[in-house]
Amino acid sequence: MKAIVVDDEASSCEALKALLEEFCTGVAVVATCQSIDEAVEAIEAHKPDAVFLDINMKGENGFDLLDRVKSIDFEIVFATAYSEYAIKAFKFSAIDYLLKPIDVDDLCGAVEKVRARKGRIESSRYDQLLQNLKPANEQNYKLTLPSSNGLSFVKISDIIYCEANSNYTHFFLADGRKIIVCQTLKEYELLLSPHRFFRIHHAYLINLEAIQQYVAGDGGHVIMNNDAILDVSKRRKRDFLSLYKK
User: Fold this and answer.
1) What single string gives the DSSP state of each residue in 220-244?
2) Fewer beta carbons within 10 angstroms: which end of the chain, N or C?
3) What pLDDT is stored for residue 76 in this prediction?
């Protein structure tokens, strides 16, 4: 796998190159670049499989590379010490990132993800990332859902509920669609809980704005806007009902 490292600090470039070549089998760093101009030239010359891109560079922004290359036919792994707001945008957009200082296990994991996606790069993920990074856009985030059919970009408000199925998550949407994603419900619980989603049961994460009715019982159940009837576990009942107490 051919890789390019982009960082405005030469020492950081060399350090990441050394980590990639020592710990990530089969990775060859074909160029290190200290500016977006250098990176564009190196990409055109070497046709890499992956670019490891710093975000904060002197006088430049790593995101500028997205506008400068003719086509993104390689994977980008961002390296960042960015705020939690930006990290959330990466997660919603299904984009790989590494937090500085870079952990070797995280780096190897990112390389394996690049390998797994080789040959089916979808640059639309990067377009959605830029949209999600716009100021004051958090409430309008679109969640990027990778499935066997490609990518779906879904507004949070259009998600009625999510259902766990082993290592898969089923998304049920307001327009009647169901999207199956090969990630656990726990991962989406972490992403969506700050956006008025609540896990009422080990199997269900629901949009609290999409409930028609709660029916009392041992745990009770909720009726959602799509008429789905979902059990509330006894363990989660108190926390669920407390959301509606003044």
Assistant:
1) -EEEETT--EEEPPHHHHHHHHHTT
2) C
3) 92
